[in-house]
Amino acid sequence: MANVFGKRQIVITKGKAATLWDINGKEYVDCMGSYGVALLGHCHPKVVAAIKAQAEALICSHASLYNDRRSEFLQKLTNMTPKGLDKAFLSNSGAESVECAIKLARKYTRKPEIIAVMGAFHGKTMGALSATWDKKYREPFQPLVPEFKHVPPDNLDKMKEAISEKTAAVLLEPIRGEGGVRVPPDGYLQGLRQLCTEKNVLLIFDEVQTSFGRTGKLFGCQNWDVTPDVMTMAKPFAGGLPIGITVARTEVMSALKLGEHSTTFSGGPLVCAAGCAAIDALIEENLTEQAATKGKYFKEQLEALMAKHKIAKEVRGLGLMLGMELRFDVLGVIQRCTKNGVLVLDAGRNVLRFLPPLVITQTQIDKTIAVLDTALEEEENARANQSSPAPN
Ligand SMILES: Cc1ncc(COP(=O)(O)O)c(C=O)c1O
Question: What is the pTM of this model?
Answer without folding.
Answer: 0.97
